Amino acid sequence: EYMGEYSRYMLSTQQVNEVELANLHRTKTRAQVKAGAYQPLDEGEIPAATLWPQNGSLRQRTFDFFDNPNSGILPRFFAIWIITLILYSTVVFVLETVRDVKVKMGSLFWEFSETFCVSWFTVEYSIRFLTAGDRLRFLRQPMNVIDLLAIAPFYLDAVFHFGGRSTFLRVLRLMRIFRVFKMGKYSAGMQMLANTMSKSFDTLLLLSIYLAIALVVFSAMIFFAECGDPMEIDGQIVFVRPGQDYPSPFSSIPASFWWCLVTMT
Questions:
Q1: Which of 113, 194, 205, 231 would disulfide-bridge 240, Cβ 3.0–4.6 Å?
Q2: Angle 236-242-243 from CA coordinates, rounded to 5°
Q3: Residue 205 is inside which H or E element, if any?
Q4: How many helices (H) and strands (E) does the chain have?
Q5: How far is Cα 230 from Cα 258, in angstroms, rounded to an integer?
Q6: Residue 34 near residue 40, CB atoms below 8 Å
Q7: Cβ pair 174, 209 in contact under 8 A
Q8: Using the 8-state DSSP alphabet, how is residue 15 labeled?
Q9: 265 has pLDDT over 80
Q10: Averaged pLDDT score across all residues of the chain
């Protein structure tokens, strides 16, 4: 009711702006608001940030601490820490595929790095899940699905002990790259880009349809123009272009898709 009175007053006088709204905390009584008897902030002055989220119950404040970096100073530092872990785990994920680096650092380093990062990600995800107001809605949100996919491979491998060359294990390890997308939650620019793309879905779909049509047409044209003549090499029938002794890269229309896509884009 207090906020409503203040909003109606400011709207009636056409003086609403962000600086004046920030002065609400300095107002003591409703009569002071109506009379305009409050101390405005100096021009350019920004209200002091709080150390911890202030609004709502303890459960809501705990959720805001881990989910909203703008709710206070400590949540902002925690978000920076999580971003640092995301970058570190991504670098480790990439360098682990370099054989010389992997051998030089030893298996203990890679295991410790993975366990350390996953532990932090697990704590963050678990607390946000336990303090969420609607847990089913929390589980359905895209960014939270990405968070779960980022930590799931570690626990699935620990429980089922997949073999080192298991195809399923390789897929699980590839899923760790989803951690990069966690940064979108802490970046206003990435959120704006995702929102823009979602609102432009119809236009992007139309563009994709035209691209697919052009892809098929031009791939068919390059195939019939550059496929060459059929020839038997090592017991297999392949297409070889005149004057060459190796198979044509345009051996079929699907094989021509890559050339066509790169050329058009």
A1: 231
A2: 105
A3: helix 201-226
A4: 13, 2
A5: 22
A6: no
A7: no
A8: -
A9: yes
A10: 76
Q: Taking the alpha carbons of 102, 104, 106, 111 in that order, is the dihedral positive or negative? A: negative
Cα(200)–Cα(192) distance, integer angstroms:
12
**pLDDT range class, residue 39, cuts 50, 70, 90:** very low
Instruction: Assign 162 to helix, strand or coil.
Output: coil
Q: Is the dihedral of CA 111, 87, 177, 144 positive or negative?
A: positive
Per DSSP, the three-state class of 236 is strand
Q: What is the pLDDT of residue 30?
A: 45
Cα 263 vs. chain centroid, distance in angstroms? 29
Residues 6+ apart with CB under 8 A from 233: 240, 247
Please say if the pLDDT value at position 43 is more than 50: no
> In the block, which residue shows the tokens 């996919």?
149
pLDDT in tens, 210-262: 999 999 999 999 888 888 777 777 777 777 887 777 778 888 888 889 889 99
Distance CA 89, CA 83 (A): 10
Of the candidates 166, 191, 183, 185, the residue with the CA atom closest to the CA atom of residue 89: 183
Q: Is the dihedral of CA 252, 253, 258, 260 positive or negative?
A: positive
